[in-house]
Amino acid sequence: MGKALGNHILVEFMNCDPRVMNDAASIERDMVEAAKKAGATVINSTFHHFSPFGVSGVVVIQESHLAIHTWPEWGYAAVDLFTCGEMDAWISFDYLKKCFSSDSYSAIELKRGSVNLLKRNDFDISSIRTKAQESWKNPDFSTRNVWFTDKDQDQALSLRFTGEVFHDVQSPFQRVRILESYKYGKLLTLDDMVMTTEKDEFHYHEMISHSAMFTLGDNAKNILVIGGGDGGTVRELLRHDSIEKITMVEIDQEVITACKKHLPQIACAFDNPKLDLIVDDGISFVKNAKPKTYDLIIVDGSDPIGPAEGLFSVEFYRNCYAALKDTGILVSQGESPKFNDKVFSELNFTLKEIFGADKTKISLFFVPTYPTGMWSFQYGIKGDLDLLKIADVAKVDKFVKEKKLRYYNSDIQIASFALPNFVKELIA
Ligand code: SAM
């Protein structure tokens, strides 16, 4: 048979759990995980639930695809594991057999595309590659219809991207990837969640830093940043001359490395002498922090799964409270009242419990590449500080002009604390 271009395993899974066979979301999760377990690079997945029952779906991988169609009424799934390259799809087979609780199956392995039977067309790969590179840079010409999707079980945000993966490392904490999207440029994803993009990062980084900095004024000297591995938050903070020292505690060196290399305009302040960059778990760092040390603590953490789960705990915020000076501000990445309202409101209740209801504030702002686009920062205040009173508006406007800020200004600081009724009800 000689060398084959692809390997195709056709699987009949029988006596599967009918409920699983009818659950599109869990089948998709299992199929994507099955691909990852075999070392595949998942590009995209699409699954459809038929009415009244049955699911069809495909996971496109860099190494080709995994596909499935189910008949829940027969407890049966027809699965195709089509791969090219070194990937061992039997690993996916074993994983799916367990997921579907299938106790009887048949599988046939076929070599596809035997080169003995094929005639190779001598493409000048380099000219094709050059043309491809030219075309994918120009969305109008690009034919690549590859989408990156950040989603939960009910909602998703998809960005068309060039298919180019500049960085893809599974760190001890999370999968760190740098992709290139047509609309928002390069983006950092952690475990397939968008963290920051070239074209809208300023929305987030300007709003997480300047409202608190101008409220503290020249007293903002000693700052603690938890997370923030892309570097955008410290970049914005270091625009303020009052700062004497920033301690940044990021758990994952891989994030810093990836951003320094591929997002240099965001990760541009890591060599600033005022910055003490520590690669460690922010939860234990705050637990061991000296009381009343910081004027400002910024929690620029990822979503509450994996390493960041503890960044939403009562104990963590009690420790932050203790580490803040008697006059100080805590700002935390507060999730979205529209995407994960439970986490959003729970964090608010936690801060109210620790700082007091009248010392807890929520600022809403927009990040187009976060699911729903509506996001928040949640504040806890110690001492006599008022985020709604800007001491010197002219000074703020001059700073905004000089630093060419593109989101934050004195009006938006105030406006961002005006909450829509549904949010007021959510945190009532
Ligand atoms: N803007 C993003 C968001 O809204 O989700 C956050 C960006 S920033 C990249 C999040 C950083 O928090 C990541 O680099 C992640 O590694 C870091 N992180 C997560 N858990 C952490 C922990 N326990 N201690 C320190 N850093 C942590």
Low-confidence stretches: none
Main sheet specs: 7 strands, mixed
Count the strands? 18
Number of helices: 13
Structure description:
By secondary structure, this protein is α+β, with helices and mostly antiparallel strands. Helix content is 30%, strand content 33%. It has helices spanning 18-21, 24-37, 89-99, 125-137, 201-216, 232-237, 253-262, 282-287, 314-323, 341-355, 393-402, 410-415, 421-427; strands at residues 4-14, 42-49, 55-61, 64-71, 76-83, 104-114, 146-151, 156-170, 175-181, 185-190, 193-197, 222-227, 245-250, 275-279, 294-300, 324-333, 360-366, 374-382. Strand 9 and strand 10 (185-190) form a beta hairpin. Helix 2 runs antiparallel to helix 3 and helix 9 packs across helix 10. The chain starts with a strand and ends with a helix. The mean pLDDT is 92. Bound molecules: S-adenosylmethionine. S-adenosylmethionine (SAM) binds next to strand 11, strand 12, strand 13 and helix 8.
